[in-house]
Amino acid sequence: MRVQIMGEAIASINALSSRSQVFLPPGAPPPFIIRFDASSQPVGQLVFRSDTKTNNELQDIANFNARPFLIAIPGLTTAPPFGGSPRTIEINIDPNRLRTHSLSPEQVVEAISRQNITSPSGNVYINDINYLTPTNNTLKTVEEFGDIPIFKGQVDNVYIRDVATIKDGADITTGYALIDGKRSVYINIAKSGNASTYDVVRNLKKAIPNIQRNLPEGVSISYEFDQSVYVINAVKSLVVEGVLGALLTGLMVLLFLRDRRAALIVILTIPISIIAGVLFLKLFGQTINIMSLSGLALAIGILVDESTVTVENIHQHFAMGKSKAQAIWDACKEIAFPKLLILLCILAVFAPAIVMTGIPGALFMPLALAIGFSMIISFLMSQTFVPVMANWLMKNKKEHETKENGFDRFKARFLHFLNHLMQRKKVIFSLSMIAALTVVSFMYIHIGKDVLPSVNSRQFQVRITAPEGTRIEKTEQKIKAVLGELDTLLGQDNVSISSTFIGQHPSTFAVSPIYLYNAGPHEALMQVALRSVDGDTDAMKDKIRKHLQERMPELKLSFEPIELTEKILSQGANTPVEIRVSGMMKKMNMMYANKLLTKLKQLDYMRDQQIPQSMNYPALEIHIDRTRAAQLGLDAQDIAKSLVATTASSRYTSKNMWVGGMMHIAYDVQVQMPQHLLTSEDELANIPLSKNSDRPVLGDVATITPVKTMGESYNDGTMGYTTVTANLHQADLARAKKDVELAIASLGELPKGINIKLAGMAPVLDDTFNSLLSGLLIAVIVIFLMLTANFQSFKVSFVILTTVPFVVLGSLLLLHLTGSTLNLQSFMGIIMSVGVSIANAVLLINNAETLRLQTGDATTSALQAANLRMRPIIMTTLAMVAGMLPMAIGFGEGGDQVSPLGRAVVGGLFASTFSVLILLPLLFSWIQQKSSITSVSLDPEDESSIHYSPSNTNL
């Protein structure tokens, strides 16, 4: 579905889902539909701590004292607070007292529903006064609930206080939040889809002091698990990489030209082009994000190409003995069109961004725009700013007056070597091309493939599952024990903060599971932030797995993505490997899923293999004897209502609100039985059911049987499915996908009615690589057509494009040598390096073709072009490599996220320089040796054209 109509889609689905409300059971909230994007993923947590307040009090404070301030922050969205239960007026019934007064729980519920109501008031006009007529339909105080009479059809009344205790308390506890092992409350902070993460978090931090002033004494707040640090660190890395890249680039220029002033001019173009690129991003509605920053960081190395070529060509014209002004003018004029063609070739590699769809398109576009804008500004500056600065700063030192330097001697030897290769150019080029294509094919098949590069983060998220049905109090004890083990394993001083949510959200907050979902009281989701990580994050996770498996074998662990980008790319999947076994028969789904799980456990690089659904949850099945119930004057509805009020609360079947407090906030009123009064099957069987009679009780009309049942059900449409999930350790996603497919195949033909679907990151991987391969192909075609239009020759365009296999070879080799996988970042680096390498090829071949048209000798022209363009090609290559070196080595915090991109470009540049300086002259000499020097122009006034007519020029 296209992004531009996503709003319409949500509106349509909301309209359709509203119709389904009539089919939902009583108490079920209406469906809540949101678009899955950055706005549904938290960017941090606002944590509330107190030594004097309970969790439930903190819940109320967070919801009504703090949350209104958050809503006022532009671009910020929040879910209700996590960790406490909402304030509720509890009517805690006593089953023994009910039996004494021959009452059922439903009679208590009906009495409250009739006596605490909200109704409008009218008006009475007496004389000249308009009187309002409010009533006390709504109770004013909590204590008044005890005075509500329960009608029994007799003169004497029984009051609520006679059969229940009234408490201004909280809803039944279904979940807690632990901050550093202590019960607390936090609010998940999210942003709207178009808002800037950095701006939202910055404005939130500014608002925190004001929020703190409006909180009760003894309550403190802090912002934790800040996802904006990744953007901030990326900006810091960009600045550091920019400074280092500029300095290294300047050193390269200084090394070759021995001109400090020329080096300074090249350095100055970098910050100006970057700043201008950022301004244009703003104009086009783009934000500073990881991908646009990657583009700017990559542009630092590429920007020097334009200014370096200009400065080098100025030096060449100085060497011809021209005056400064004339040398600068001629140098800029000579290379203006080739540089424009080079710019267009680099921009052409971004043409696929226009047609790319899905995740690759969304991620590639900011990078493409960042580099594109910076490159355009760099070209303009090379034709304006650089000449002006050269005239102002550079000195006209004639190179022929200087002594021969080391580079001149190297160039002479190289040209002699190249001339020697010309004798066997066909064999050498053919073998080189065959070898390159063979190695590229082999490496592409065998190199690891992922959607994103692995990142050594100082944060991790893990889902911990106790045996199904474990009470939430017991789960909390186990989680605290896990936290203790983590302190021992990782170092107590090294754990900056831990945040854990145990159990499920209160039913009042139906939207909360969108942000955090647990299957039941036996499950917990833990986030841990560390001050430092020694070594590899995957190794640390494996260490945690093994340690907890030894100490607490009853627990199941599953590590999940914590970074915002990874969560969005995974499209809701908690693990990279997710296999859905679907079919109409859920038992068959489960049987097949268990067989598949056994196969996955045999793969030594997979971790956390499990079926996450709760499939064997303990239950007490209550089987109603309808005939017996009817004989006693009951039906299933009477029994169900009494059961709900006893085992859960009446809020699900009879909604009732009380408005109170200083802020006049509406709170739920619910009839319930305290959990400590219902601790055995016998007590459950003695629940009274009939009005005005102590019999029958539940045990008279129903049997209670302990069973195992499904704790949760997953459906895709009407089709139920069971999920098998797994994490990876030191393995790439493509390998896992292949092995999963082999495991499925090894189980033989699928049983009838069973379907298998790979979910998780596997479909994203396929879509990403298909889109990127198409993008690379489109880029090559666009460049080929553009070169053909310029040179008026398919053969010359083909010669230039033969660098592409060698570029890909160099990129893949460096990725393999550095242990990087082929992923979204590195693939975009390959596409980028194709454009840059073609720029060098254009610089050489354009000169060679011009000389060939003058001399008619392709071999001599190729050698002369190599002689003239060798220094600028090597200079620009080394300058670009130097500029991207900080990115390629992963310099700075978070550098490993973009390092594959830099490595791919660096590897491609080195390989392309080899192919441009050695192989392209050989191929040019081979292909163009017998080509005509006559222009293919149809212009009769063009003297080089075969259609030239002198008579036309005299008209």
TrEMBL record:
Keywords: Membrane, Transmembrane, Transmembrane helix. It comes from the Bacteria. The chain crosses the membrane at residues 238-257, 262-281, 340-363, 369-393, 427-447, 772-791, 798-818, 824-845, 873-892, 904-927. GO terms for cellular component: plasma membrane. SUPFAM superfamilies: Multidrug efflux transporter AcrB pore domain, PN1, PN2, PC1 and PC2 subdomains (SSF82693), Multidrug efflux transporter AcrB TolC docking domain, DN and DC subdomains (SSF82714), Multidrug efflux transporter AcrB transmembrane domain (SSF82866). GO terms for molecular function: xenobiotic transmembrane transporter activity. PANTHER family: CATION EFFLUX PROTEIN, PTHR32063. This is RND transporter, HAE1/HME family, permease protein.
